[in-house]
Amino acid sequence: MAKAPRSVVLGTAGHIDHGKTTLVRALTGKDTDRLPEEKRRGITIELGFAPWQVAPDLEASIVDVPGHESFVRTMVAGAGGIDAVILVVSAEDGVMPQTREHMNVCRLLGVAHGVVALTKVDRLEGDDEAIELATDDVREALRGTVFERSTIVPCSGQTGEGLDALRNEVRRLIASMPRRETRGDLIVPLDRVFSLKGHGTVVTGTLLTGVVDLGRESIVHLVPTGDNREVREVRARAAQVRGSDRDRILAGSRIALNLGGIETKDLHRGDVLTAGSTVARSTFVHALLDHLPGHSAAWKHGTAVQVCAGTAHAVARLYPLWLAPSDDPTADQEDHGPEVRIAAGRRGIVRVRFETPLPTWRDQRLIVRAFEDTSEDHQGRTVGGGVVVDPEPATGRGQRGRWIAVSRALTDPDPKTRVLALVQDAGTAGAHAEALARRAGVRDLGDLVGPLTGDKGELVELGGGRFVHASQVQPLVLRAITVVDRFHADNPMQPGVGRAAVEGMLGSAIAPDVAALAVERAIARGALKPVDDHGTLARPGKGLVAGGELPEHMQRVLDLYVEGDTTPPTLREVEERSSLPARKILEIVGILQRTGRLIKVTPDLSFSKQSHERLLEQVRERLREHGTIDVQALKQMTGLTRKFVVPFLEHLDQLQITLRQGDTRIPGPRA
Q1: 3-state secondary structure (DSSP) of residue 645
Q2: For labelling, which of 41, 298, 462, 494 has a CA lying 20 to 30 Å from the CA of 370?
Q3: Paired strand residues for 239
Q4: What is the DSSP letter of 87?
């Protein structure tokens, strides 16, 4: 089988009127200016796209982005999914303000591969010296940027001069680039939404990660931008790459999807199509942001900005949490106090609050643009950007220290460190595997946590795909022991305390399965022990247990039942004969029942263990010989009155020793 051609997305960048669209048309034969207003004004307003067969084994989609300052937000929407950039610089004008801003955007978006097209060389009328001078000027202007070492190719979109050299350089550049990751969840941020006659709703975007495989799965999730919109399922009916139908498409491709079950009015640029749980719908994220050097004011608590995320954008407020140390010894060093500020040229962790929810995911690139800046020349300019380190940070008041600790751990390159930090932060509530994978950016969570969950591992696996850190369980084991100790001190004559009560007294914020785990570990250690069949727990050597010696007043009550034999006293009779108060009698009888010395038949009737066993044996013998028993037969066998016989037979029904059929009993399952 022939190997499928490699597919990449190339973006143009550069100042307005430096010839980006003309160059794309010369390379691809397609005009990316599609709006009448674009053609009238001669500038690109909306994103334009053009297929380009760079080589037989290399297919590219070119994203032609606007160069004018007013349209940089649209430029960011297109640049978010590109693999490499063709930076367009006019040989006449050189590097201009929007050129620099586009370069900053590329750096902040993590675009590290590019080639520089020095356009409009035809206007230099073949003057090699002028071309060389223009090339040197551009090289100097690129110093210190991501394009510092990029090849500069003089060319002209009007005459075709240098285009072959540009094609060859693009081929060489792409060959040196790593392929996009095809593992992981499908993520497609939408940049265009329209309706096509005969097909219905069509969306386009760049497949950032994962694989579109319509042969296996056509249902995807729409994670929307904005308020009052919910995540919903949609069906992908067909897919295209550069106008060609495909059933299977790998990450790195510009794709068009024909969607069923949704109208264009229900879709917007910025929405994300995804499969799996990687993408969250967030109002808050924590991000590691760079504040670009320049004249803009320091970011402080509540700074208002505009944030571009994927193909979406929203007004947001920044809440700096931590200032990274600087190499400059004169600069403010690491700070995470309440008044932390991130000055221009510095980096830090920031809590970002979007005015409206956006689709976000770990390692998503963000661009920060000035929104309310006292410096007029920075109004509406790109001032910073970075990556999302936590798409679902904790909420609540007084959490600043916690946010800083977790976010700093999430910047660690070791996924094990990130996962352990999140589980530790979840505390006794436990952490869900799905959330761990999403927040830590781990694809194969099972492979990572497997070695961590052994007998002496750092993690303990709970039911339902949840984990708790082992260090959170040990304090609960000690607390469970303390709870039982305290109960013994307050109730020395009780056998112990119920297991459910012990688990409940460990704390209301503790997940029930975590509390049960702590109690189970205390039992396994021998620090607690069950003392009856009802789940009562006691400390070794403490509490009243079956077979142990009774205090004198309790023994006196038990003796009344033993003496009564098969005609035991009622509670009132015990009270009269023992001279103990009724409340105390109830407590003692309850203890004797829990320790197995008395067997409860009704609230007012109990038999001593010996008497109860003798009566049971008589009943079983009768059932073996005759197959039935009734009130009259039991009276004749035992000499008991109806007062004792009727409740005892009902008691036998409850024990499943007998089954009632009318006025007669037959053998039950436990006869």
Answers
A1: helix
A2: 41
A3: 257
A4: E
Which residues have CB under 8 Å from 78's CB, separation 6+?
11, 47, 63, 64, 65, 191, 311
Reduced 3-state DSSP string for 225-238: CCCCCCCEEEEEEE
Query: What whole-number distance in Å separates Cα of residue 166 and Cα of residue 195?
Result: 36
pLDDT greater than 70 at residue 569: yes
Give the whole-angstrom CA distance, residue 615 versus residue 608.
11
CA gap 154, 147 in Å, rounded: 15
Distance CA 455, CA 451 (A): 10
Cα(576)–Cα(28) distance, integer angstroms: 107
Q: How far is CA 569 from CA 154, 256, 574, in A?
A: 111, 86, 6
Distances (CA, A) of 536 to 264, 333, 508, 526, 655: 63, 57, 21, 15, 21
Contacting residues for 168 by C-beta, under 8 A, at least 6 apart: none
pLDDT more than 90, % of the chain: 54
The C-alpha atoms of residue 305 and residue 348 are separated, in whole angstroms, by 16
Q: What is the pLDDT of residue 73?
A: 54
Residue 119 is predicted with a pLDDT of 94
User: For residue 317, what are its two tokens?
Assistant: 């407020």
| Residue type for position 668 | G
The whole-number pLDDT of residue 17 equals 83
Say which DSSP state 372 is in.
Answer: S
**Three-state secondary structure readout of 428-467:** HHCEEHHHHHHHHCCCCHHHHHHHHCCCCCCEEEECCCEE
Mean pLDDT for 515-534 is 91
- Please name the residue that has the structure tokens 């579109």: 212
Maximum pairwise Cα distance, the chain: 130
**For residue 663, is pLDDT > 70?**
yes
Q: Please, what sign has the CA dihedral across residues 338, 342, 347, 349?
A: positive
What's residue 601's pLDDT? 93
Q: Are 514 and 475 in contact (CB under 8 A)?
A: no
pLDDT in tens, 171-203: 999 888 888 777 789 999 998 899 988 888 999
Average pLDDT, the chain: 86
Indicate the pTM of the whole model: 0.76
CA-wise closest residue to 318 among 274, 276, 348: 348
pLDDT of residue 546: 55
Least confident window among 64-78, 115-129, 552-566: 64-78
Residue 631: which of 598, 593, 671, 658 has the closest Cα? 658
What is the tens place of the pLDDT at every residue in 256-274? 899 998 999 999 989 999 9
Tokens of residue 589, six digits: 């009888």
State residue 370 phi and psi, 5-degree precision: -60, 140
Torsion of CA 340, 341, 342, 344, to 10 degrees: -160
DSSP per residue over 311-335, as a string?
Answer: TEEEEEEEEEEEEPP-S-TTS---B
At 143, phi and psi to the nearest 5?
Answer: -60, 130
Phi, psi at 82, each rounded to 5°: -90, 155
Question: Residues 463, 516: contact at Cβ < 8 Å?
Answer: no
Burial (CB < 10 A; 0-12, 13-18, 19+), residue 101, is buried
Q: For 637-646, b where at least 16 C-beta lie within 10 A, e where not — what string?
A: ebebeeebbe
**In this model, does residue 371 exceed pLDDT 70?**
no
Contact between 30 and 51 (Cβ < 8 Å): yes
pLDDT tens track for 99-138: 888 888 888 888 889 999 999 999 998 889 999 999 999 9
What is the three-class DSSP state of 64? strand
